[in-house]
Each structure stands twice: as C-alpha cells, then as structure tokens.
Amino acid sequence: MAEYQFVEKLRWTGIRQRARMASAIISAMTFLYILLGLVIGVLSGIVGLGGGIMIVPALVYLFHMSQHKAQGTSLAALLAPVGALAFWAYYKAGNVDIKAALLIGLGFLVGGYFGGLWAQQLSELVLRRVFGTLLVIIGIRLLLAR
C-alpha cells in the first residue's frame, strides 16, 4: 500500500510540475502577444498602415500560425481597437475626413464579409501568395512614388 501511495505522489508531483511549466509558457505567450500588439499599434499609429499588414506575417513567422488562422486572429484583434486612439490623435489634429471614413467603413464592412467567405475557400499556399503579392505591390508603389 505504501508503494502505491508513493507512486501516486510522484504522479501528482509530475502533473503539478507540468502545470507550472504550462502556466509559465502561457504567461510568456501572453506577454509576447501583448508586446506584438503594442509594437504593431505604435507602427500603425505612426505610418497609418493597417495592422494586419504587420500582424499577419508576425503571427505566421514568429508564432507559427497558419495563414488562415493568422488572418482571422488579426481581424479579431483589430475589430474593436482598430485604431480608436490613433484616430482620435489624427482627428484632433484635423487630419480625418469623417465622411470618407464612414463610406470606406461601409464598403469595408460588406467587402470584409465577402472576402472572409472567399478566403476560406482558398488553399493555404494560394492565400499566402495572394497576401505576399499584395504586400510586394504596395511596397513597390510606395518605394517608387514621388
């Protein structure tokens, strides 16, 4: 009987140690996700880029998410805080066209819904190539613009 109790104690000790390690990993991941959001938020506020252009590659390459999951996670992260405070700073400085923003937002609402449905039908490879091609085109246009 004492041998059984000893084995049970060892088993529970191992479970507790694994739980502590999992908790530490979760805490580290939580910190890294918050840090990613902070860095991307600052960059988005400075250059006015959509956070998804920076969040998606970070989630794919640094956090090893699939392209689909990274894009969905980025959309979820940007849904509410999509730049409310950055918007307010630009608005106070007189650098926001409210009518244009509302109209773009309406189009984005409808287009985002249909784009999200369509993206689910694409393979991982095709989706990654579409995303990458878009980034290259935007980058080249920005680099060559006067």
Structure in words:
- This protein has 146 residues and is mainly α.
- The chain has one domain (2-80, 87-144).
- It has helices at residues 2-47, 51-61, 67-79, 84-92, 98-119, 124-144.
- The longest helix is centred in the first third of the chain and has 46 residues, at 2-47.
- The N and C termini lie far apart (83 Å).
Task: Describe how the helices and strands are arranged.
Layout: H1 2-47, H2 51-61, H3 67-79, H4 84-92, H5 98-119, H6 124-144
Keywords:
84% helix; mainly alpha; 6 helices; 146 residues; elongated
Euclidean distance between termini CA atoms: 83 Å
Q: Number of helical runs?
A: 6
Q: Find the count of extended strands (DSSP E, 2+ residues).
A: 0
* Major sheet summary line: none
User: Averaged pLDDT, please?
Assistant: 78
Radius of gyration: 22 Å
Content of β-strand: under 5%
Count of structural domains: 1
Order of helices and strands: HHHHHH
Query: Which residue ranges are poorly predicted, with pLDDT under 50 across at least 5 consecutive positions?
Result: none
Name the structural class.
mainly alpha
**What share of the residues lie within helices?**
over 70%
Oligomer: single chain
In one word, what is the shape?
elongated
Task: Summarize it.
The chain is 84% helix and 0% strand.
